[in-house]
Amino acid sequence: MGLLSLLMKDPLSFILIAIPLLYAIIFHELAHGWVAYRMGDPTAKNLGRLSLNPIRHLDPMGTIMLFLVGFGWAKPVPVNFANLRDRRKGMILVASAGIVMNMILAFSALFLSRLLSVPESSMPAVVLHIFAKINIILAAFNLIPIPPLDGSKILLGFAPPNIQAYLLRLERFGFLIVIGLLFTGALDPVINFFQWMILSIIQLLLP
Question: Mind listing the pLDDT tens digit for each residue in 94-145?
């Protein structure tokens, strides 16, 4: 279900999902830009993308798709990998940054929920658990090693030259491949596995 349908049917649920989703995506993109900046690439900073202002991160088509079909995207933070002090290491760390940020946000939400000891049916608990779930899904989705997702760039940093060349050729069609696999449900088992893996790690760290 798209967010537009949800807004029409249940405005409160729309707010509880849309706002956490928006900021989960913003922090994901900020993490990419911040790590790139720390490793020598000021591109995102110079373009004003190290900001919490949602307008700087929204992609018009991605936002429309999110509202209509429930799947969308933000404007990717620009990174010039040639500026990084260590290109291979930088590629891995920059690509991982968004995933790690989503995992940290999910952990923080679940930790805060446990710390506050609020009833599971209360509004604070519901909001925190929705925020955690959204971040876990985003982290899991981005771990998929198909361009242009972060998982492909992490793999690119570790892969030998022949695999790197294949992934770079695939990148032209990667977005269409991802959308096609999503609509057919072919990626569901992969995303579910990554969600299980991420949640298991978070649960190990929770007190």
Answer: 999 999 999 999 999 999 999 988 777 788 888 899 999 999 999 999 999 9
Alpha carbon distance 53, 64 (integer Å): 19
Distance CA 7, CA 147 (A): 31
Please check whether residue 158 is in contact with residue 165, taking contact to mean a CB–CB distance below 8 angstroms.
Answer: no
Residue 19 vs residues 92, 128, 129, 162, 205: alpha-carbon distances, Å: 29, 12, 13, 42, 26
**29 is an active site residue:** yes
Q: How far apart are CA 148 and CA 171, in angstroms?
A: 6
Catalytic residue among 6, 20, 27, 29: 29
For residue 157, give every residue at least 6 positions away whose Cβ sits within 8 Å of its Cβ, in sequence order, or none: 88, 89, 91, 92, 95
The pLDDT value recorded for residue 73 is 73
**Contacts of 176 by beta carbon, 8 Å cutoff, 6+ apart:** none
| pTM for the structure as a whole | 0.89
Tokens of 68: 């209509």
Assigned token pair, 180: 């096609």
Q: What is the pLDDT of residues 14-44, one digit of tens each?
A: 777 878 888 898 899 999 999 999 999 999 9
